[in-house]
Amino acid sequence: MAHTAVAQDNGSADNGYNEIIVTAQKRAQSLQDVSVAVSAIGADTLANAGISNLQDMQQLVPSVTFGNDFNQAKVFIRGVGANTSTTGSSTGVALHVDGAYVARAEAQLTSLFDVERVEVLRGPQGSLYGRNAVGGSINIITAKPTDRLSGYARLSYGNYQALTTEAAVSGPVADWLRLRLAAKSEVRDGYGKDPFNNWDVDDLNRKMVRGQAQILFSEKADLLLSAEYFRQDDNSGAVHYYGDAFPGVARLAPLGPAGIATKPRDLGSDEPPSVNTKSQSYTATFNWEFSDAFSITNVANYRDFKTQLIQDLDISAVVNRLPTATTVQTRTINSKQWSNEFQVKYDSDIVNGVVGLYYFGEHQRPRDQVGLTSSYGMASNIGFLATRPTIIDGKVAAPGSIGLAYADYLCGFSDGVAPNRVCLRSRLNTEAWAAFGQLNFDLEKAIGLNNLTLKLGGRFSHEKVSTANMSVVMTANANPAVGSVLAYTDAPYTEGGTYRQKTFKDFTPEIGLNWQPNGNTLLYYTYSEGFKAGSGENAAGSSTIVKPEKMKNHEVGAKLDLFDRMLTLNLAGYWYKLKDLQINKTIGGGPTGYTTIFENAARTEAKGVEIEWMLRPMHRVRLSGGLSYTDSKYKDFLTLDPLDPRNVSQPGQPAYNPVTNPDPTAFGAPCVDGSANVGGCQIQLAGNRTRNSPKWSYNVHGELDLVDHSDMGTVTLSGDMSGKSTIYFTEFNRLSEGAKAFTLFDAALRWTSNKEDVTASLWIKNIADTLRASSTFAISTGRVIGATWLPPRTYGFTLGYRY
What we know:
Elements: H1 4-9, E1 21-22, E2 29-30, E3 38-42, H2 43-48, E4 64-69, E5 72-77, E6 80-81, E7 93-97, E8 100-101, E9 115-122, E10 136-142, E11 150-158, E12 162-174, E13 177-188, E14 192-193, E15 200-201, E16 204-216, E17 221-234, E18 240-244, E19 274-289, E20 294-312, E21 328-347, E22 351-364, E23 367-371, H3 380-386, E24 391-392, E25 395-396, H4 404-411, E26 422-442, H5 443-447, E27 452-476, E28 484-488, E29 500-518, E30 521-532, E31 549-562, E32 567-588, E33 594-618, E34 621-636, E35 638-640, E36 682-684, E37 696-709, E38 713-724, E39 727-728, E40 738-739, E41 742-752, E42 758-765, E43 773-779, E44 784-789, E45 794-802
Parallel strand pairs: 7-10
Antiparallel strand pairs: 1-2, 3-9, 4-5, 5-6, 7-8, 9-10, 11-12, 11-45, 12-13, 13-16, 14-15, 16-17, 17-19, 18-44, 19-20, 20-21, 21-22, 21-23, 22-26, 23-26, 24-25, 26-27, 27-28, 27-29, 29-30, 30-31, 31-32, 32-33, 33-34, 34-37, 35-36, 37-38, 38-41, 39-40, 41-42, 42-45, 43-44
């Protein structure tokens, strides 16, 4: 069980037990007193397990599934998460760092460092965490400045020339001022190579630093100022060849089979698949305790996030040109977000809780390009566009035409450089505010109902979103001699163009009843609702804003400390209905060669059980684990299948004709029900499992102190086993877009000095070198299925010192 590791972080009694304090409900509580399914992982546990990012968290929390593609984190809890690979839309699991929300899925791929603990709240957290916490919330709590000089340094080295260094120093510089500075560096060679060009694939180069200053106004009031910087520049996050999208269909064969790498972790491409990210975050947290009953907290945050992804969409080293295709994608994202949360906390004998106000704003400026290379397009584009007058921001020089200056404006190219074939520039804005609260009433002290507590909460949300997508697309005519065909958006920032704006309002209530007959038992029931507002996306010519997601969830749970707290056992069962799940996919066709579909799945239902346990049978032995059962299925979802050849058109290819082209897999062929294929053949997916929702997930962790001597220190042998049943990454439940059941094994041998200030460990992860995909994506332009992989076998040693 994940939270057991926190107890070990803080020392141990004779049976290894120590109380774990969390802030899952925005006030300090013992983990065993919180009527929420929550896992907590402390700093030492993260370090000992080699957890350096959110993807690794799924090893310790079975109900979490993590994948990534197109440089976006895809975190799922209980079958709910990020179902899109286009930027702009919101995640289904919220991420908070020291109480500040991180909106972009791309920004959730940064590393964990100098962390006090991570809390994983499962199920909708509508009352206290609000927007986009339908599946749950992951809260990262960083280490804070200390009242004495302290710090640590840690160095790890492993195969693939992996070198990780991390250090922090903290302490007071005056009676009223405490400082903390932490930094981390991660570098390693690639897990694969490009066999045609010999550059690394999936290497790593990350640097990050965080500075904190705590100003103590008095014993009752303080201000914590935090600044964080993250930098990444490497060839990581590559989408690898997983299989042909349309095996046996000649007209939809992969574009460059001769350039596809044969080894799964290798990748053939025209250019290195690169990620270049810069992120800055500034947070100010003010706390003021008026009295023993009243206190206030204000958390203000600003985040500036920039990233660029370059990848070859045909996953091949064969360079493709018009009229066939040009497939090097460049996605650039510039996001600025700001938020403020004001909380009032009250704690008395009968009532305790928190109420507050929240504001969030974000401006996104994503830009997508597809061309011959990441830096230029076909030379013929210059001459073709030069004959067209200019349109910028809806100012039309000549109706129905477009010019080179406009294309350069979208693509960001200098004069004389040929623009890419597809240039898309979007403006996606969000403004949200909310009023929220959660109160707990002690019914025993109020009206004499023994050991019962009533929990009442709710959140009113108001969110305004807008989307605008201006684009230029040059494709090819069936007869190349005819020349280019041009599609573009006119007046993109007016209602006559692609601009759309919508406002969403919702109230998400929460009601629960807790029974705590003694200090070792808590039983609870909670009804809660979740809400995720509709959103737009960056897609050429799109003006789509999908409907909001709404969830109704029932949960029962038990938290038990048994046998003189030798065994801790936490159980949760849940059942929910989810309406209008937001889902994104692409399908072949349209002027770009692909068409983005952003839609709502009408109804989804799920039920599940989660078990976490920790057993301390003797002083030198610690055992823990978790088990998650998830049955998450669509109840009503009528949609198009991107891998049905009848739905896929490509430039220059013949449509279905029962006389001249009777191929039943051809575009335009009749659907299964015999109806005409107008806009595609839709299928009903009721009964299919949802994305990233393995039925079974589990982990087991064991530690044995081989040597426990005051002079020699402690030598600990640890082992981990974690696994998941079959995972489908799409709603169509195909293993060609999924991963078979797997189990991973890790082990470590750790020495800790008698003063607990020096550590040394040897470790190995994924001992069997199991190869499994963490996500897949059907790439329409390349007619292949791409995949990202879980890490291979890694091993090395770690040295640490703290004072």
